[in-house]
UniProtKB/TrEMBL annotation, chain A:
Residues 126-401 form the NADH:quinone oxidoreductase/Mrp antiporter transmembrane domain. NCBIfam families: PRK12648.1. Residues 685-768 form the MrpA C-terminal/MbhE domain. One of its GO terms (cellular component) is plasma membrane. This is Multicomponent K+:H+ antiporter subunit A. It comes from the Bacteria. Residues 62-110 form the NADH-Ubiquinone oxidoreductase (complex I) chain 5 N-terminal domain. Residues 789-912 form the Na+/H+ antiporter MnhB subunit-related protein domain. Residues 611-676 form the MrpA C-terminal/MbhD domain. Signal peptide: none annotated. It is found in: Cell membrane; Membrane.
Automatic annotation (TrEMBL), chain B:
Keywords: Antiport, Cell membrane, Ion transport, Membrane, Transmembrane, Transmembrane helix, Transport. This is Multicomponent K+:H+ antiporter subunit F. It comes from the Bacteria. It is a multi-pass membrane protein. Belongs to the CPA3 antiporters (TC 2.A.63) subunit F family. It is found in: Cell membrane. Its main location: membrane. PANTHER family: NA(+)/H(+) ANTIPORTER SUBUNIT F1, NA(+)_H(+) ANTIPORTER SUBUNIT F. The chain crosses the membrane at residues 6-24, 36-55, 61-85. The keyword Transmembrane applies. The keyword Hydrolase does not apply. One of its GO terms (molecular function) is sodium:proton antiporter activity.
Amino acid sequence: MTLPLVILLPFIGAVLTGWVARLGRMQAAWMAGLFTLLAVLALVPCVPLTVAGETVLWRLDWIPTSGLNLAFRLDGLGLLFAAMILGIGLLVILYARYYLPERDGLGRFYAYLLSFMGSMLGIVLAENVILLLMFWELTSLSSFLLISYSYRKPESRRGARMALTVTGLGGLALLGGLLLLGDMAGSYDLLIILTQGEIIRAHPLYTPMLVLILIGAFTKSAQFPFHFWLPHAMAAPTPVSAYLHSATLVKAGIFLLARLFPVLSGTPEWTWLVIGAGLTTLLVGAGIALFKHDLKGLLAYSTVSHLGLITLLFGLSTPLAAVAGVFHIFNHATFKASLFMAAGIIDHECGTRDMRRINGLWSFMPYTATLAMVAAASMAGVPLFNGFLSKEMFFAETADFSSGFDHGWVLPALVVAAGVMAVAYSLRFIHDVFFNGDPIDLPRTPHEPPFWMKAPVAVLVAICLLVGIVPALTVDPLLRMTVASVLQAPPPDFDLAIWHGFGLPVVMSLVALGGGLTIYALRRPLFRLAARLEGWLDARAIYEWVLAEMLLFARWFTRRLDSGSLQRLVLVLLLTVLGLGVFGFLGSGSPLTGTRSLLPVDGVSVAMTAVLIVVTLATVALHRRRFTALVIVGALGLLVALIFIQFSAPDLALTQLSVEVVTIVLLLLALYFLPQQSPRESSNLRRTRDALIAVLAGLGAGALTWAMLTRPFTSISDYFITHSLPGGGGANVVNVILVDFRGFDTLGEITVLALAGLGIHAMLYGLRLPGLTQDAEGRPWNWDTHPAIMAALARLLLPLALLVSIYIFLRGHNAPGGGFIAGLITAVALILQYLTNGVAWTHQRLSSNMLPLIGAGLLIATLTGLGSLVFGYPFLTSSFTHVHWPIIGDFELATAMLFDLGVYLVVVGATLLILIHLGLMHRATHPHAEPTP
Amino acid sequence: MLMLNTALAVAFGCVTAAIGLTVWRLLIGPDQPDRILALDTLYINAIALLVLLGIQFNSALYFEAAILIAMMGFVGTVALCKYILRGDIIE
């Protein structure tokens, strides 16, 4: 089955297009178009079945225990949306090629656009609702990237952030709603959910579930009161507006309403909430659209209004209203996308979008003007254009719905009022822009755009006309198929025709047209009134106020918990732990000393322990003299390593020794920029109190260790010790755990290490700090940067150290060692060269760019893991064999060793990257000293 | 064997005493080079201790740790000395 390919191909295309874009704009556009076409081709084999009325399903168990399956479905609704996403996507790719300025590489744009396309296809083809939610969130993310495409402009960043906040909030609500829904239906698969309508509607949690799902749908489809993000998202380049904000993204919420229509609709809660939101949005959007002077602003609010219209239709809950809703989804996508593209052409040609300045373009660009006027007429609902048909169905449905209520005239009246405003703003779009005198003070002289920029508009406008004139021949079958899948029942009887005979809908249409003309004629006093009301009840202001208040609250709350003083935090932590520990111990009633007998004590261990204690106390006493403290800490590290050796933890000891040196180097690098002494800041009383608490905490930890070590204790280590050799092929349990049993953890850890390295690389990039000009006693630094004897000696050490590290690496699987320790040894050996021979000398022989090394390491480790998938084993299963080599003897080869190689490379790369970058921070301010005579 | 055991016991005593004295020097200084030298000597004493342990328990693992200390200790000493010399250790 090719269904998953439809979703996968745009994502693959995104990566490839981003890569190909460096060859040129044309290549990028072709690559993006090619992958969209491939996705279309992948969709084609499934179409005949869907047209025949079946639902094409494809499924793969993913996490079946959680009800999460990688499952896709293609039914009529999905097909309609997929066709719109892919079809308009292709046109937008073509259009964007000519719209975006020449200096733009297009790679980033197409990569974002294709990943959005893939996410959107995922929403409409998902069979599992949790999967649907994941794609839902992906569209939020990819549209964030697209809106902020011109990220240097503050309004782009603000618009993108607002869209992400609002739709992200909706996504969270939707997650809750879908989890409830799946819980009620007993499955997260739509196949089952769609049959459980009655059970779900009768469920006690139906209302909270509905509200959560509706919040998700309304935020995405810009329904009141969440409508305000959409106009601000118009900071995106126009192709994005044409694609996301008219045809696809904003329809996702409505898609969800249509998808869950058979399950959720028909209850009073649904009717009131959905009709309420839809009607308010319809009116508010149309009202604001009329007064926008910005061309895209007008279209944005008109989109808000039309989305409200469709939502209102689904709120009516009748089958015929669903037909009208689906029909208007299609019509709105065609005429609004073409209008956005036309607006983009006008913006492109005039250099402004202000309708008070753009006038009389008819004489400059008659072709574009004709196309835009047809689309605008369709938006107004003029007969012979597709918008008329769905709008008349809309009028008919609202009139029909209201006839059963007292005051039933209210809804139709309000709906006609919205229709009046729609006609008025459409008329304004046509008359202000293309007629109404001459242009005023345009930055550029407009002329017809290139042919290929008009072509996508022409295609869409042609569809508007065809559907508008011969609906029965063009859109009828598509509509029936879609409605059948929305209703999960045979479609109701409906007749798509331009003339249904004289009735209420015709009157409503006529009133809308006549009223719109009148309002437009009266526009000047109305604009003056609007200018006075501007800023009144601005949804954006409310949003920003809420956001600011929330941030203030969060800051206040954090401050309450964390005063910024580490001492305070440690104090609270230690006291809590002490209190809980003492409470727990006293409550248990068990003795401190367990049943195990004590081991014999030898003199050397006692002496070493005594030395360790003395050195620790000395570190505390001398900690204000930082360099001295550092030297003593070095001794402390050595003593701890000796203890590890004594207690048979050779891996730990080797690691401790290597880490110790790296730590000393790191601290010395930092110390260079810091004061050499720690000032005394606390009072004596406070220090005494802190010392007392520290001693108590130490005693507590000691007592705990004592209690644990004197008791018989079995841990999970027996399992690993038994299975290490037969299961992982290595005798060194520690290493086998790292690269085999817990290989996935290790992969995560080296990824974190690589990210930390990258983060430090990014933060320190270009940073130059002033260092000390003299040492702690006020003497100037020595002139000899790299003493010759030391340099020569260190060079000799390098091959020896590398030999040891290779040895430790190779035998790591069976004896103490492995990639991590070997990597540290190599890194330390190379750092020694930096220390003694200097950066310049080392960089002549060793690349200064560590990023490829880190990347290669991660890649090797991941590919090794994936390799076992190829052979049908779980991720990162190790396989091994023992070979006998001459001279060397019996030798074991394991894929784990390849994985360990990845670990090794990442450790070497990240360690060097971090230390060398810290070391180079002051290159500019610390010139090489000249020898003093 | 008795001879070796006696020698080992004496050597352990000497090395332990050496460690104690080195730590004393590490703590009293008086100058930074004194401390660095003390740390380096401590590394060497640790190597000696490990080799003695290796002889006592007849195990090669101690020897490897000793090699590693020899290598790593040197790097630590170089880094500390470089700081005294130039402040800026990687330049």
